[in-house]
């Protein structure tokens, strides 16, 4: 368990009541890593969600030739290990620390159970996961454009489809 006020630093806390934050804090623990340590590796079962409290992490994916390719970075305030919340609960990337890192680790099975019991918590968590995935997808699109020698994609200027 961690003090609930430590969750206040993260965007997902903005839409949760104090009681709900206490419920999440009760299934959290702190973990620390030194520079150059793997926090998790692609393909393994995803058992926890992490809130990056301090430090920077490189996100990588394994290529067919066995090499690791950078697919992004995560900094303090960001979510890691979202795969633990969605089937098939397998990590889709690896996370390598670039500096000393401190995370708040949330047991995924307990968090899923909490979300089942309190759908309002589940809704807020899912919104945060969706926002994280959207940001990472946009980053991957920019990287792909750079690697392919094309200009970075521009945001759509047309109106939303009707």
Concise overview:
About 30% of the residues lie in helices and about 25% in strands.
Low-confidence stretches: none
Gross CATH architecture: Sandwich
Q: In the CATH hierarchy, what is the superfamily? A: Jelly Rolls
- Give the end-to-end Cα distance, rounded to a whole number of Å: 47 Å
Please state the overall shape, judged from the principal axes of the Cα atoms: globular
Structural class: alpha+beta
Average residue-wise pLDDT:
89
Total count of strands: 8
Radius of gyration: 17 Å
Layout of secondary structure:
Blueprint: H1 18-25, E1 28-33, E2 38-40, E3 48-54, E4 56-62, E5 68-75, E6 79-80, E7 94-97, E8 101-107, H2 108-117, H3 119-147
Antiparallel strand pairs: 1-8, 2-7, 3-6, 3-8, 4-5, 4-7
Helix pairs in contact: 2-3
Describe the structure in your own words.
By secondary structure, this protein is an alpha+beta fold. It has one domain (4-145): Sandwich (Jelly Rolls). It contains three helices and eight strands, in the order H-E-E-E-E-E-E-E-E-H-H. Strands 1-8-3-6 form a four-stranded antiparallel β-sheet. It has a four-stranded antiparallel β-sheet with strand order 2-7-4-5. The longest helix has 29 residues, at 119-147. The model has no long low-confidence stretch (mean pLDDT 89).
Features:
3 helices; Jelly Rolls; alpha+beta
